[in-house]
Amino acid sequence: MFWRLEYFFLCFAVLGLFAAPISCAKKRSGIVYTRDQLMALRPPSFVVGEKPQIPKEVRRKQRGTKAGVKQRMKRRRFKPCVPAVITGNVRSLANKMDELEALTRTQREYREASIMCFTETWLHGLIPDSNVTIAGFTTVRADRDTTAAGKKKGGGLAVFVSNRWCNPEHIHIKERVCSPDVELIAIGLRPYYLPREFTNVIAITVYIPPTGKADTACDVIHSVTADLQTKHPGAFILITGDFNHASLKSTLPTFHQYVQCSTRDRKTLDLLYANVTSAYTSTAGGGKSDHNLVLLSPSYTPVVQQQSVTTVSDYIKFCTENSVPTKKVRCYPNNKPWVTSDLKALLNKKKRAFTAGDPAELRSVQKELKRSLKESKDAYRKKLEERLERNQTRDVWSGMRTITGFQKKGIRLADGNVDQANELNQFFNRFDSSPPSPSCPNIPLDNNGPDSPICS
């Protein structure tokens, strides 16, 4: 019987060994892919420069934008608070257009400039606008009027306005003057972005010839500027150009001059005035002309950013008012500044001891009161010394008058009595008195004389 069980278990083990590879093979057998089939499953490669076709449901959505000063300046590089200006005397603009086009393509200062103002362009009617055009800029030219200026050639003004800073439809010529003393053109601009304190921008380009009269030219500039300020009181006004021997320091005292570098040899002839403080920083540029171009970078901070942020302090104040209990303290005018709350508590304690009739307690409180009073006066003295070290003389003298009890003297009354006042009154009114009656002769002032008449 026993050998039959062993035989059964041996047969079962042999069958298990043969069945295991068959089951493993069945388990391993599945879908098998070839290399070509796997390569066919790969999405097609994208061509460089083409955007892939991504379904809308899979496309990533923008959940906001980056913040920070650098990001804001990067987004607003073509929209500064005040216009970035390049100014200078080019002495013939036509032969320098290639250089300007190259500078605007390669250099960031020229490419991001809002306005480029040039004097002595030497342009005339035979030179078309297409010859003096820069890509991305709108050209406003004011050629010299030979009849009004009294000269056959030379002069002329040109202003290039960036299309990324101001729409060409928002450029308007406000004023144009041409005389033997001054050439002027005023342009009104409404850019895409301006701080709230400015309504628009007015750019005035000026050229004063060396032979022109400085006083006459300054009067013309003043009259044009005053008229524009009356019409546009909230405008940002800049005046730039070649002033030669003239200056607007006394003519327009509210305008500030920002060109600090030399523009020709060691002289500063090309200037820029603006009606706002801390608006620009100037750096000298290059150029083929004998005048150096001047780059004026904006450094103006809008009024909104100049104000201190009060959000945190206001919230702290709000929480304080809602959670912290308030306590009213009465300050009497006869209280000395060194009398503190601890000193007042000792005075009240002394009053209670006196009312209770406890002499021992009264003596101990009196000693403690003297010690505290001495310490309070010493602390107030140190406080005055610290104020004196900080040059706060007004507070020091006020404290000294409080300590010493010094008071200003009142109005000093005049000495004398009623009789002296009557004598003075009679003396000064001796000619204004009414004439005596017929029954009484003229009575002299001195009634003690021997010839004094007596009324009958």
Automatic annotation (TrEMBL):
<feature type="signal peptide">
    <location>
        <begin position="1"/>
        <end position="19"/>
    </location>
</feature>
<feature type="region of interest" description="Disordered">
    <location>
        <begin position="429"/>
        <end position="456"/>
    </location>
</feature>
<protein>
    <recommendedName>
        <fullName>Endonuclease/exonuclease/phosphatase domain-containing protein</fullName>
    </recommendedName>
</protein>
<feature type="domain" description="Endonuclease/exonuclease/phosphatase">
    <location>
        <begin position="88"/>
        <end position="291"/>
    </location>
</feature>
<keyword id="KW-0732">Signal</keyword>
<dbReference type="GO" id="GO:0003824">
    <property type="term" value="F:catalytic activity"/>
</dbReference>
<dbReference type="InterPro" id="IPR005135">
    <property type="entry name" value="Endo/exonuclease/phosphatase"/>
</dbReference>
<dbReference type="Pfam" id="PF03372">
    <property type="entry name" value="Exo_endo_phos"/>
</dbReference>
<dbReference type="InterPro" id="IPR036691">
    <property type="entry name" value="Endo/exonu/phosph_ase_sf"/>
</dbReference>
